[in-house]
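Usage

Read records sequentially. Each one opens with the input sequence:
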Amino acid sequence: MNVLLFASLILYFAASVLQFLAVAAKKELLHRIARWVMAAGFLSHTAFTVWRGFAAGRLPLANQFEFASAFAWAVTLMGFLLYRKLGQEGVLTIAMPAAFLILSYAAFQPREIKELMPALRSVWFGLHIGSAAFSYAAFAIAGGLGVGYLMKFRKVADQQDPGLKQMDYLAYRMICLGFLLLTVVIFSGAIWAEQAWSSWWSWDPKETWALITWIFYAIYLHQRLRLKWQGKRMAVLAIVALVLVLFTFAGVNLLLPGLHSYASNG
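and closes with the structure output:
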């Protein structure tokens, strides 16, 4: 399994480098090679995930390492799906380095396979944690699009530019998806918490920061839908929101131990 994990890491890194070179040199051949290398990394990552799931006898989502790996896998899958649908290289330019960085973080986490704690043995296990992985992936791509928007805006300085408008709209759609999935995460987590700890909500740090993140994205959507905000300021909000997501993902485990602390080491 370790061979597959580190092969995935190397392939994601190689794909990222090739993609950045392709953008700089404007060479379609390099883009094509980068996509094939990323696809190889994704297949290796998928094989690793399936193998670990069989070895553990459960979905590989029980600790910080497994969740981070699933997060990286979801980013890669979403990047490919969006590219297939839209044909936009910019999505892969975001997804490739994002997958590499997240999987790099995972590689530094304890990787031992352990039995599930009693609190995790629930029908809500896959829905709650799987929804979180895909929610974070959607937010990561949206935040990356926000960064890309600001970089492109410095050159174009026209919010009516078709490329900028497409990036702005795609970031909005990804945030809609992520927000829906995060809502599933919060509600399924509340039901699961009531079953496991006899309390719907305990203001555990992970719960609290997930709620803060949800509220921030709700504000984003309100500003977009009711006040018709678009463009540069929405890109900034998408980036700030991603910082909240990353803190909820990694920072809470490191700095604010609570009921979810079991997830940091398995």
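Summary fields computed downstream for this record:
- The mean pLDDT is 91.
- The chain has nine helices and no strands.
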